Amino acid sequence: MKIATRDIPTRIDSPNAVARHQPDFGDATGYGDIAAEHFAMEKGTDLAGLLEGLEDDLCQSPHWGYVVSGELTVTYADGSEETDEGGDMFYWPPGHTVRADENVDFVLFSPQHEHGQVLDHVEQKMAESP
């Protein structure tokens, strides 16, 4: 699920501030502590190989985030794809992988425990590669 910033409904619109609000943007029930993460990926980077060995060879942590600049494609377990680009806010449910279509800069908010396990796995895969 993604939404361009300009498409988020305006709740407050005053001369000094505009607040946009999108309710029901992913469920965080039962996830505990959230980590904030910043990623920069070069065009062509594909995380699929680094996720091999995880359940369904996919990231099993949900993420909420914002693409600062660039473009990436998220592929879900059912094979569907979503392209997120600069200015998009997104929610990625568990069961996905990501590739950079352009140099991309994005921010994630993720359950600390679940995504920590994924990052540990990715670091291990990177250490094993030549």
**Largest beta-sheet characterization:** 5 strands, antiparallel
Query: pLDDT average, as an integer?
Result: 92
Q: What is the count of β-strands? A: 10
Name the CATH architecture: Sandwich
**The CATH top-level class label:** Mainly Beta
Rg over alpha carbons: 16 Å
SSE string: EEEEHEEEEEEH
InterPro entries: RmlC-like_jellyroll, RmlC_Cupin_sf
Organism: Halogranum salarium B-1
Protein name: Cupin domain-containing protein
Note down, in words, how this protein is organized.
With 130 residues, this protein is α+β, with helices and mostly antiparallel strands. 16% of the residues lie in helices and 42% in strands. The chain has one domain: Sandwich (Jelly Rolls), CATH 2.60.120. The strands form 3 sheets. It has a 5-stranded antiparallel beta sheet. The protein has a 3-stranded antiparallel beta sheet with strand order 7-6-9, with no helix packed on it. It is globular. The N and C termini lie far apart (36 Å).
Question: How are the SSEs ordered, and which strands pair?
Answer:
Blueprint: E1 2-4, E2 10-13, E3 18-20, E4 34-41, H1 48-51, E5 63-69, E6 71-76, E7 81-85, E8 88-92, E9 96-100, E10 104-111, H2 112-128
Antiparallel strand pairs: 1-8, 2-3, 4-10, 5-8, 5-10, 6-7, 6-9
